[in-house]
Amino acid sequence: MTGAIAQRLSEIRQQLPESVRLIAVTKQVSPEAMREAYAAGVRDFGESRISEAELKQAQLQDLPDITWHLIGHLQSNKARKALEQFQWIHSIDSLKLAQRLNELALELSRSPFICLQVKLLQDPNKYGWAVPQLLADLPALNECYNLQIQGLMTIPPFDLKASEILSVFDRTRKLADEIRQQNWSNIQMQQLSMGMSGDYPLAVQSGATMIRLGRILFGERAS
After folding, report:
1. Helices (DSSP H) in the chain: which residue ranges?
2. pLDDT one-digit tens code per residue, 6-61
3. 4-218, what's its fold?
């Protein structure tokens, strides 16, 4: 197994533009495997669960230049912990959650980087803003001065054809362009967090700036 993660990383990086930030998704991945990825140059690690991330962060304290990304659904009652543990939160999916984080960020003297999660297609298994609601909420989001809103995140439904996935990613990029053209003072649209192990080439084709890769780097997770 030794060296396998580094080899996979090397092969993937050869396909990526320098502008794309690779986030290693480490749900159910051991700290030892994370150290191997770190040794191969990974500095961005994505976790879905706050409790699991907390344990790993304690075991990897000697690697201080890691950037931690929360990519899983965030409940409001865990917002404080999220701010304490993560520099990036990709999964802000409602105005209520954004406003709660904004209040806590002021209290904790934090200024997290944020992506707004959007849902371009109906999917009961996914969280995120529908486009009309997001556009309606932009004025209030612009008032969340303690959040560094950087862009959009999306996860397509699992059962789509490649052409349909590409359409979701393209629509997300166009939505970011539309929001950017409105020139909000506190909403940046420089980042597109989209693409996972099964579809990241399509995301890169559509302009992704951050891809979230787990299985392709670390192998299948335990069920």
Report:
1. 4-13, 31-39, 50-59, 79-85, 95-108, 131-141, 162-180, 200-205, 215-218
2. 999 999 999 999 999 999 999 999 999 999 999 999 999 999 999 999 999 999 99
3. TIM Barrel (3.20.20)
